[in-house]
UniProtKB/TrEMBL annotation:
It comes from Candidatus Uhrbacteria bacterium GW2011_GWF2_46_218. It comes from the Bacteria. This is Transcriptional regulator, TrmB. Residues 10-73 form the Transcription regulator TrmB N-terminal domain. Pfam families: TrmB.
Length: 265
């Protein structure tokens, strides 16, 4: 009986609805007070429970003498009820998908209010990368390569992240900072153009990435922190600063990768 009760709860029944329905199944046809006693609920509550079960088509009223009795419908009715609930869920999901663009627009209207998120540690880094991969369009970034390759947390998911970038063929430009610039030691990711500088030329300790209207900042302390800024104006400003740095690196050691280049890490 406990298993049946648990199953009904998972189907959306309340504790008392489940008890009343099982009592009706067991007793066949019975008056409210008998069902209430069997279910362990008071008589006043039982009438409301019976009405709820009748509304679902699970219990019906049976005329017997001056006082009506109530009987459970065949349990197959539960399957019909589930089908109806599934149909309702499908209709609600369809409606929500149609309204989702409107809700998304309200979420951050016109990009006017910067949305800033701080994420810490390994889970924060993984969440940040998931946000990045959900976006569309090219990206630009400045990466202190040695820090990303040797950091105990960042290096763990680095291979998986580079594989995802390579498979998606995302156009990108990157300025990589190295102790000693060496093209043979940089990742080869499709659709990318990279330039390599000695770290003294741009002495920063954080990674900066811009994609769509998002700016991603990563610090490389032992406990890394990711900052995600969602704002059109800020993203455009950081992108412009990158373009300025990119123009200043013309003639630097670099490489351009096409869609057919193999991934090298």
């Amino acid at each position: 009986m406990e298993r049946l009760h648990s199953s009904l709860l998972r189907l959306g029944f309340s504790q008392k609805e489940s008890a009343m329905y099982l009592a009706a199944l067991e007793l066949g046809s019975a008056p409210v007070q008998t069902l209430a006693k069997r279910a362990g609920v008071n008589r006043a509550t039982a009438y409301g429970l019976i009405d709820s079960l009748i509304e679902r088509g699970l219990v019906s009223k049976v005329a017997k003498g001056r006082k009506g009795e109530f009987a459970a419908e065949h349990p197959e009715r539960l399957c019909a009820l589930l089908r109806l609930q599934q149909q309702t869920l499908n209709e609600q999901e369809h409606m929500m998908r149609e309204l989702l663009p409107i809700f998304s627009a309200l979420h951050n209207q016109s990009g006017q209010k910067p949305k800033i998120r701080f994420l810490e540690g390994e889970e924060g880094m993984l969440t940040t990368r998931e946000i990045f991969l959900r976006l569309t369009g090219p990206f630009v970034q400045i990466v202190p390569l040695h820090e990303t390759e040797t950091h105990p947390i960042l290096s763990k998911a680095r291979t998986e992240h580079l594989c995802a970038l390579h498979a998606l063929h995302i156009p990108h430009r990157a300025i990589l900072l190295m102790d000693k610039p060496d093209l043979s030691k940089i990742p080869t990711v499709s659709h990318g153009e990279v330039r390599v500088l000695p770290k003294e030329a741009l002495p920063i300790k954080a990674e900066i990435t811009v994609r769509a209207n998002h700016v991603f900042l990563y610090t490389f302390s032992f406990h890394p922190i990711s900052v995600v800024i969602e704002n059109n104006e800020i993203a455009d400003a950081i992108h412009s600063l990158f373009d300025l740095a990119w123009r200043g690196t013309e003639g630097a050691m670099g490489r351009t990768m096409g869609k057919d280049d193999a991934l090298v890490m």
